[in-house]
Amino acid sequence: MRVTFLGTGAAGGVPLFGCSCRACVRARLHKARVRLPCSALVETADSRILLDAGLTDLHERFAPGDLDAIVLTHFHPDHVQGLLHLRWGIGDRIPVCCPADPEGCADLYKHPGLLDFRALTALVPFMAGDLKLTPLPLNHSKPTLGYAIESADGCRFAYLTDTLGLPAASAKFLADWQADGLALDCSYPPHAEPKGHNDWSAALAVIAQVKPARTWFTHISHKLDAWLLDTQTIPAGLTIAGDGEQIEFTARAYQGRHSE
Which residues pair with 98 in a beta bridge? Predict the structure, then answer.
């Protein structure tokens, strides 16, 4: 199973429009430091699923039939805005698995076009291609789900964004499940009085709860990037994810690399 971080940014991304902090200046100078809307692609030899749809060029990145499903964490614009254009295409409908949220975003439900919205039930597994996904409730300002994703050969990867801490049921599931890898919301530096997103301290507390083999922080704001410029020590087993980074999980193991 391969996971590619297509975007690792919080709402507004990095660089943030109009901001001149060190992290935003660095991102304008170095493309590798840019953070697009938070999303990931999960692939096996037989399946491809897109986690969240905030990238606005989905219609250019993916050809018809490329994806077995699009799986949404929630309906905030930075996680679904790419669907607003994609829906007007021509061809077969695209499964879009999502939380049960009657408000959705804008008029996506009223005019879904190609999009075949399928509401999920928390903790009830479903299949997307040969991948088994278990939706996990998260703590956010809209109905939000994370996903525990298992490949046919037993590789386990959890994707948890956007959230502040974890509900008890999700924490228990993940602690028992023993993920090989965890992508986790960490939007802010410590002591940031977070709302709906983990700061550094809250994210570390989640890791201590669920004990994954390895963790990648994602949904990163320019404030966290700026703080990290002065932070020399990153705990063992933790990586700050970057756009384009890929992880290969094989036989309950992983190898990390950046795509070219």
Answer: 119
